Amino acid sequence: MALKQQKIDVTDSVTGKIKNGEMELYLENTCIGKIMLSGNLQYDLDHHFEADQQKIYQHVTITDGPDAKYTDCDDGGWC
């Protein structure tokens, strides 16, 4: 089992609230960043997120390979 970085498209789950000339961005009620609405659109996102070609992605760490268990089951053992 290995850990692997993956980028997930969360664009459809992000909501925004306009406040003081900016749009605050939320994912499941957690603020993940903001977009400045003056001039060119500029994203200011939490370090686990990135914007690319009008989509917002979340960086996550996933396991790669078989799901390893803490203990092995054997005859008379427990799981």
TrEMBL record:
| Superkingdom of origin organism | Bacteria
Q: Fetch the InterPro entries from UniProt.
A: Uncharacterised_YusG
Database matches in Pfam families? DUF2553 (PF10830)
The name on file for this protein is DUF2553 family protein
